[in-house]
Specification:
By secondary structure, the chain is mainly α. The chain has a domain of 133 residues. The chain is 67% helix and 0% strand. It contains 10 helices and no strands. α1 packs across α5. The chain is globular. The two termini are 29 Å apart.
Length: 230
């Protein structure tokens, strides 16, 4: 039992680290800067940050929510995203891949599934925060989530077929139907909102074709986490 708690704690810490990366991704995606180039810096004074400034949650608490160099306030988004990622990463492991946590089954099949669910959770966090701040849902994240979803479910489908020699259509039907249900609901919801001008900033986003993708982009997140529904 102790080892199970240790594994959950380890997954929580991994989520904290990934959450820190997601904060960087959210900020740089908005300003059109690559996350693969350059070190992290303060968005206010542009000073490069050392490792002491980048410890998830703890650095924020140590600095009392202020930059070490310019003393300007750091948004509470940073520790909240890190905590959310940590909690969700641990919860996903316990709920969706209990074999890893309780039976210590680190087979490639289980690890592949866990990695995918973590990717789906990360995508949803980015979409949620980005849309909350700027009323735009980035197509890059949605396309990445969609491609990962198709690859994941197709891989599991053919893996089961290779073992059993049978086509298990439930592996494809369940996520598809879940995505269709959620897509239909939000399409109707956003369509009515858009008609009243409530979602004008989303519809008039940076790329003209994005206004047409405001509906189908909702396929990906629910397709990714459909196993939570069905």
């Amino acid at each position: 039992m102790f080892l199970s708690y240790f594994i959950v704690a380890a997954f929580f810490c991994i989520g904290l680290i990934i959450g820190s990366f997601l904060n960087c991704l959210i900020y740089r995606l908005n300003i059109g800067q690559s996350v693969l180039k350059g070190r992290s810096y303060c968005p206010k004074c542009k000073h490069r940050l050392s490792w002491r400034d980048l410890v998830p949650v703890l650095s924020y608490l140590e600095l009392n929510g202020k930059c070490r160099y310019c003393r300007k306030t750091i948004s509470s988004q940073y520790p909240l995203v890190e905590l959310a990622a940590g909690i969700l990463f641990a919860a996903v492991a316990v709920i969706l891949e209990p074999g890893i946590v309780y039976s210590f089954d680190f087979a490639a099949y289980n690890l592949f599934g866990l990695a995918y669910y973590w990717l789906a959770v990360s995508s949803l966090i980015v979409v949620f925060v980005y849309d909350l701040k700027w009323f735009i849902i980035p197509d890059e994240i949605i396309l990445c989530g969609l491609l990962a979803s198709v690859f994941f479910y197709a891989s599991r489908f053919f893996y089961v077929f290779s073992l059993t020699g049978k086509f298990d259509l439930d592996l494809l039907a369940n996520p598809f139907l879940s995505a269709l249900l959620c897509f239909s609901f939000f399409w109707r919801y956003f369509w009515r909102r858009a008609e009243n001008g409530w979602d004008s900033e989303t519809l008039n986003s940076r790329h003209s074709w994005e206004r047409f993708s405001v509906f189908p982009i909702l396929w990906s997140p629910y397709f990714s986490l459909s196993s939570l529904v069905l």
